[in-house]
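[audit] Reproducing an earlier prediction to check determinism. Same input, same settings, fresh worker. If the tokens differ from the archived copy the diff job will pick it up downstream; this log only records the rerun itself.
[audit] input (165 residues):
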Amino acid sequence: MSGWSRRFPTDAKLDGMRRLLADLGEPNVDAAALINALQQAGWTPPGAVAAAEPPRQARGMTAIDFLQCAANEMHARAALRDSPQGERSVAAAVQAFNVLFGHQVAARIREGKPPLSETHGWELQSLLKKSRSANGAYHEDDYVDGVAYASLTAESAARELGGTE
């Protein structure tokens, strides 16, 4: 999940937290304040649904502002992936792609087709997620996106290759 999104407590979550606090003998604790404090500390309620922050206003941002945003995101990714040099998953994904699909790319070029098909694009995305999941701690996003990319790959391959099995 991007650093540009947050989770907000809903009335149902607040009511659930109030009941939990009452059950624990703490009915006077402000549930909304507790949830907000926990979220500020990085806690996410189970089953939380992300609500995106209002989109950043690009108007008025300079090239330097965009560079700073990108640098901040790269630093966050480096910490997320336990890699001092930052996100470096693409090289491994491209290497794996070439091993698995290089012969297909070469055949497409010989046939006068564009080197990569849509299915190849989804395969590369899937391999990138696998490469990322191999670095750093567990991040649910790696696996959820991996499942999504696998389904998009299957859909594309069935359309491109006429799968009927």
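[audit] rerun output stored. Observation attached for the diff report: The chain has three domains: 1-55, 57-87, 90-161.
[audit] end
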